[in-house]
Design brief:
The complex is a heterodimer. Chain A is α/β, with parallel strands linked by helices. Chain A contains eleven helices and ten strands. In chain A, 32% of the residues lie in helices and 12% in strands. In chain A, the strands form two sheets. In chain A, strands 3-2-1-4-8-9-10 form a seven-stranded mixed β-sheet. Chain A has a three-stranded antiparallel β-sheet with strand order 5-6-7. The chains are: A alpha/beta, B alpha+beta. Chain B: Pfam families: Gpi16.
Chain lengths: 386, 569
């Protein structure tokens, strides 16, 4: 009887231990799977402001606030393509040069001291934007202007400006339609240029821009539905324009609470700026996204991956090659050139134009002349000429 | 497992020992100097000029040997120089216009907007291809829209812009010059410029460069100049010199609150705490020629043809910083006497009315009382201003002044701009006026910028002159001189070289009505729909008589009749 009782106790203890170990392993496993579940190894951001002119100050402030948050959470400048259609900070109308503020209390200068704008002024066009997305840039484009993403990149795309039902206006002279944008994303998918894409747009009727998406792994947010206008936050009487749009203002407030190790997920982002604060109804679209939005971290898109693997192996360094002494080939003294050699300039020979072979018209004309000449006078006169 | 670790640790230790024994670092052959000059101006403004110089004894253009170890010289620029076989590179970004009559002459002149001129090495076969790629690479390095430089705004001057560095070959086929007068300068251009410095903006004079103060000024110019210089006093071999300069003029009323009292803190909202540890010399020069001060450390230098007195503060010495370990200079002056008139001054404006024709006037002022000197005027005008060169006149003192050298290259539509270079002798104490008439072209509607009613900018004219100097200039170029006096090389003692830029012009071109395509489509579609549509309907529509619907009783009766198989009512 006692034996039975002891056996029973041992069995219970053993099973408890096994359960404990299993639960521990499960916890570790979920942590490990969560660690690698997002499947991306690098982060990129493409931030575009499409409006020109001083009264569109708020669009530049929108983009710069997202740029600031993204940089703060870890994405370096080399992985951010920032496009600003006009210069507000050093605009002559700005009473405080080299600053762009988000609120009239002027606490936060979103322009900052360490900003690198890749496309500015007239370079922000629909063509350049689509070329950056699809990667079809001319070969001489520098690296800072390229989106060098691969199939393990998570890309954040943020657009702001003036828009309408199905289009976004670029610089008051051209538009991009939602169909073009959806096709560009499909090209990116076909060329495996992204792992997951988060698309945020802050314009009037912004939800119309993500209606036509059909590529997988895209999540989209917009500041207003079709038929609604996105409103600006508040004007500043000292600067004289509206400083920021409502949706991005509350988005910035939300992002200021996020730090690189934060566990906030996309469901919190969908709750940013409800109708009571924004007056318009923000919308989102997650049907093309494979993972559950509740399991997607904000830092998957706004922050940068820092997965570190420690290794204990040693690496052999090769000896550096010794620097050879430069042979002194010439020993005559060199001198500086005369900056304004008046005598030389006056007697300068006229620049020799490069000789080009005569083009078709001249050749044809001369051959016609020669033909007529020889036809009139006959070949037998040739020997008198040569 | 433990044994393996110990073995690895031993291996690493042995390897490090081997490396240390076989590698003795050679003495560094690059040096870095920084200096700042503060000059109070007669109008109450203050002019601060920073110069950072890195001199490196190496050969970028040597075949076969690739430079791979960069210490003080920035790697991004070094790779650009070797890849494109650049002999000299000068790039400047300027916001504002230098007012010569109020401020005198700058140490390093620059035109508003962006200016880039490059001398390529004589081994380059395709200069235009190298130029195009170089502008794209530089636009990425400096975050500027330099990729807008193409054949429509690049010129090949034939006599101006001789190389400022060593060398004897001056074939102007290897020179390219371009300006972008509309280029905006802001913090995004200052950030990469600061990152090129060895100490960055963390130590030395560069800590003063805060963008909120620097851009709240009347004039701001940052430049990078790279050229080969003499390595030592014998001048048998060359070293590369990189000069980064920043000139800024703070306005008396917007930054100075109306008082002629300036300090480092008031100008830059920072004070200095240390010199850059990598610098071999770090000095501040304050111009006290007109207002002798109390600082015992005085030095004189001949700059811009005049001998000026400076009080020197050496930041590499600990005593300069005092007990609080920070340096803040205070300048107070009461300038009542008149400024010495600058010997050369230029103005340019457009006259005329309407959107068809106009006339460009360039006025050159020679204020020297008895000496005449030659100036070289370089004008590069875009192709959409069609110049009437037969109306080009040069007059001084109401008489015609024939230039001794004219080089004119006409423009080609959408390919090449106009280039006009003239060597004019300016008589003493006179105004020389150069006028030329032009006609404005109508561009294609896709060639207009998104804001065409703002106007189109025309780049500044460049005037290069050899001006007679008041004091004998020092022609020995290798003696140790402060940086600001050794930028332009001097060949003779009685005159010095100077470059003056005029204002850029803003010209309105006739702009079409950009809503016309939309209007045309609407109108055409309406006409087609209304006119053709009704005509088509008239021809093809057939009419059928439609009986009115029968009352309810009749309909019921019809149903019963249909069931019975009897003809309907």
């Amino acid at each position: 009887m006692v034996l039975l009782f002891v056996c029973f106790c041992l069995f219970v203890c053993f099973s408890l231990l096994v359960l404990l170990e299993l639960s521990l392993m499960l916890a570790l496993l979920t942590k490990a799977t969560q660690f690698f579940s997002s499947g991306h190894t690098n982060n990129w951001a493409v931030l575009v402001c499409t409006s020109r002119f001083w009264f569109n100050y708020r669009h530049v402030a929108n983009v710069l606030s997202v740029y600031r948050s993204v940089k703060r959470l870890g994405i370096p400048d080399s992985h951010i393509v920032l496009m600003l259609a006009d210069d507000m900070a050093c605009n002559h109308r700005n009473p405080k040069p080299a600053t762009v503020f988000s609120h009239k209390n002027m606490e936060l200068n979103v322009y900052g001291d360490d900003v690198e704008v890749d496309y500015r002024g007239y370079e922000v066009t629909v063509e350049n934007f689509l070329r950056v997305l699809t990667g079809r840039l001319p070969p001489s484009t520098p690296r800072s202007k390229r989106l060098l993403s691969d199939d393990r990149s998570n890309i954040l795309i943020y657009l702001t400006g003036h828009g309408g039902n199905g289009f976004l206006k670029f610089q008051d002279s051209e538009e991009i339609s939602n169909v073009e944008l959806a096709d560009a994303f499909e090209q990116m998918w076909q060329k495996r240029r992204y792992n997951e894409l988060l698309f945020i747009i802050d314009t009037c009727q912004g939800a119309s821009m993500y209606e036509r998406f059909y590529s997988p792994n895209i999540m989209a947010l917009a500041s207003s539905q079709v038929g609604e206008d996105s409103l600006s936050h508040q004007p500043d009487l000292a600067i004289g324009v509206h400083l920021m749009d409502r949706y991005t203002f509350y988005l910035l407030e939300f992002l200021e609470d996020i730090h690189p190790a934060s566990q906030a997920n996309m469901n919190d982002l969908f709750k940013v700026c409800p109708k009571s604060q924004c007056v318009s109804t923000p919308g989102h679209r997650t049907d093309l996204f494979l993972r559950d939005p509740g399991s997607v971290l904000i830092t998957d898109f706004f922050g940068s991956v820092r997965k570190v693997e420690i290794t204990r192996e040693a690496i052999n360094l090769t000896n550096p090659t010794e620097l050879s002494l430069r042979n002194e080939l010439k020993s005559e003294a060199l001198f500086y050139v005369d900056q304004l050699p008046v005598a030389d300039i006056i007697h300068q020979k006229p620049k020799q134009k490069d000789w080009h072979p005569p083009d078709g018209f001249i050749l044809g004309l001369w051959s016609l002349i020669l033909l007529v000449f020889f036809k009139t006078y006959g070949i037998k006169h040739l020997k008198h000429i040569f | 497992e433990l044994k393996g670790n110990k073995y690895n640790k031993n291996m690493i230790f042995i390897q490090i020992m081997l490396i240390i024994n076989s590698f003795t670092p050679p003495p560094p052959n690059d040096q870095f100097q920084e200096e700042m000059v503060i000059r109070p101006l007669y109008s109450g403004d203050i002019y601060a000029s920073f110069q950072f110089r890195t001199q490196w004894d190496t050969d970028f253009l040597h075949d076969g040997k690739k430079v791979s170890h960069y210490r003080l010289f920035p790697k991004s620029l070094g790779q650009v120089l070797s890849k494109f076989s650049v002999r000299e590179l000068h790039i400047s970004f300027t916001q504002g216009y230098w007012r010569t009559m109020q401020w005198g002459q700058p140490f390093i002149p620059s035109p508003p907007g962006a200016e880039l001129w490059v001398w390529f090495h004589h081994t380059v076969t395709d200069v235009d291809g190298n130029w195009k790629e170089l502008t794209n690479v530089l636009s990425g390095i400096f975050c500027a829209s330099l990729n807008f430089i193409d054949s429509t705004n690049t010129v090949e001057p034939s006599a101006s812009f001789k190389p400022l560095g060593l060398g004897n070959a001056t074939d102007h086929r290897f020179l390219r010059y371009a300006t972008l007068p509309r280029e905006i300068v802001c913090t995004e251009n200052l950030t990469p410029w600061k990152k090129l410095l060895p100490c960055g903006s963390k130590a030395g004079l560069a800590v003063l460069m805060k963008s909120e103060k620097l851009f709240h000024s009347s004039f701001h110019s940052q430049a990078v100049h790279i050229r080969p210089v003499c390595k030592d006093w014998q001048c048998t071999s060359t070293a590369w010199e990189l000069r980064q300069t920043l000139n800024v003029v703070f306005d008396l009323y917007t930054s100075g609150q109306g008082k002629k009292e300036w300090s480092l803190f008031k100008m830059f909202s920072r004070t200095l705490t240390e010199a850059c540890p990598l610098a071999s010399s770090s000095k501040i020069y304050v111009d006290v020629t007109d207002n002798p001060g109390v600082n015992p450390l005085i030095s004189t230098a001949v700059v811009l043809g005049d001998r000026r007195t400076y009080s020197v503060y050496d930041l590499t010495k600990k005593e300069t910083f005092g007990q609080l370990r920070s340096l803040n200079l205070l300048l107070r002056w009461k300038g009542e006497n008149d400024m010495l008139r600058p010997p050369l001054h230029a103005e340019r404006y457009v006259s005329g009315f309407g959107l068809q024709k106009g006339e460009i006037h360039t006025c050159l002022y020679n204020s020297h009382p008895y000496r005449a000197y030659p100036v070289l005027l370089l004008d590069s005008l875009p192709w959409y201003l069609r110049l009437y060169v037969h109306t080009l006149t040069v007059t001084s003192k109401t008489r015609e002044n024939k230039p001794s050298y004219i080089h004119y290259q006409p423009s080609k539509d959408r390919l090449r701009p106009h280039l006009l270079e003239m060597l004019v002798q300016l008589p003493p104490h006179s105004v020389t006026e150069v006028t030329v008439q032009f006609e404005r072209a109508l561009l294609k509607w896709t060639e207009y910028t998104p804001d065409p009613n703002h106007g189109f900018y025309i780049g500044s004219s460049v005037i290069s002159a050899l001006v007679p100097s008041i004091v004998a200039m020092d022609t020995n170029s290798t003696r140790d001189r402060p940086l600001f006096s050794s930028f332009f090389p001097t060949k003779e003692e009685s005159s010095y070289f100077m470059r003056v830029y005029t204002e850029p012009l803003l010209v309105n071109l006739p702009t079409p009505d950009f809503s016309m395509p939309y209007n045309v489509i609407c109108l055409t579609c309406t006409v087609v729909a209304v006119g053709y549509g009704s005509f088509y309907n008239l021809l093809t529509r057939t009419f059928q008589v439609d009986e009115p619907s029968a009352p309810l009783a009749k309909r019921l009766a019809n149903i019963i009749r249909r069931l019975r198989g009897v003809p309907l009512l």
